[in-house]
Design a protein that fits this description.
This protein has 163 residues and is mostly beta strands. Helix content is 9%, strand content 34%. Strand 7 and strand 8 form a beta hairpin. It binds zinc ion (ZN). The site of zinc ion has 7 residues, from loops.
Amino acid sequence: MDSDKGEELLMVRATYDVPYHWSAGQYVGKFFEELRDNGRIYANLCPKCGRGLIPPRPWCARCNVRMGEWVELNGRGTVLVFSVAQQSFWDSGRGEMTPVPAAGAIIQLDGAPVLLRHALQETDPEKLRMGMRVEAVLKPREQRIGTLNDILHFRTIEDEGHG
Ligand SMILES: [Zn+2]
């Protein structure tokens, strides 16, 4: 053997089609059922550190304690950070290329110390700012299937009518 050439590897090419599904479990299952059937968004709270989780989960991995109270959120929140994609990318959650421009944000939801990453309706960077108020827009009931994408996006709240 000629040691300068190295070993030639035989390549075997194959395409696998492996459909799978898994149980969402009690907590995430209830969360998605409520979102799909009733349009309600829930988080649950850690009794020790106080943080919220969305979707709710049974255990706080930080504190190693069982999560506590479920709280219904009003679907509103505050944008902490955002970005606007001008280049299309694969959205594994939707199983398709994302139309651009596409805006995404980390949103501090009202009613619980919980953050959610989701899409924004507004995609004009000039109209986006940190601290802006937004509200979840759900798909129509007949289109909801029990995923976080049942929330279509978050729209800008023009006037919350403080008073
Ligand atoms: Zn905790």
